[in-house]
Amino acid sequence: MARDLGHEVAVVSRRGVAGDLPCYPTIDQALLARGFDGAVVATETASHALDLKCLLEGGFGGRILVEKPLFATSAEADVPLIKAAAARISVAYNLRFHPALIQARRALDGARILNIVVHVGQDLRQWRTDRPVENTYSSQRSAGGGALRDLSHELDYLLWLFGPWREVTALGGRVGDLPGDSDDCWSVAIRFASGAIASLAIDYFCRRPVRTLTCNSTADTVQIDLVKGVLVQGAGETIWPVDRDLTYREQMDGFLNGRHRDLCTFGEAMEVMRLIEAIERVSDREAMAIS
Questions:
Q1: Are 230 and 212 in contact (CB under 8 A)?
Q2: What is the pLDDT of residues 143-153, one digit of tens each?
Q3: Which three-class secondary structure state does DSSP give residue 35?
Q4: What is the crossing angle of helices 153-162 and 266-290, to 10°?
Q5: H helices of 77-131, where?
Q6: Nearest-CA neighbor of 112 among 235, 234, 233, 216?
């Protein structure tokens, strides 16, 4: 995608890559071979911190875009090199570039939000059909997989749209029988600093992919279907012909061409991590209380 936008691209991969892209087996070898203005960390979640550390120890001084979520745990941010580079690290929460969410953000600006209802789900077996589910990082806790982290786009855009959270309660974890040991289903309730309340359903089960948002304010009701690219506001309905790569292209263009303020910052991504971990902690407590 970066090459489509007119940039030279090289890849770091021990497995090699198809096509004519230059490929290096390690980050160190890539940095020794040539200079780079930007770097994208798109490894499994549990490797992000180590890969960032390798980049920074190798003297890389450019912008860095890290696949979401930023880390498997927030403790991985506690590295002096990473802290020092935080201002030039962004995180790939690409739904911020979906036109329906952008329009909703404008429409809701200044409104008093009452409640929000969100559902995101897709059968994990539909995600990467070129390999068995048990061979994907999503199915493995040790790799940083799981529905809560994989589908944390919703947590990011809720904070982006509605501001800081203050309280959270949740039930969830591993409910189904998909291969692996990662979490697969969550029901979450969040109270924001503004007083607005959100309910969020996340799952790895839905046979028909769903990504919806309904928001009630004192002025209006806004409904969004991100799969279909539909926004309903008041009496009007807006449909965007959003192809699946549009948000990724817009995000990459923002990263490469200096529109960094549109990207999720290191600090914002860490707030998502703190919310993820709070959801896990409170769910554990609820489970213990019930038992």
A1: no
A2: 899 999 999 99
A3: coil
A4: 110
A5: 80-84, 99-108
A6: 216
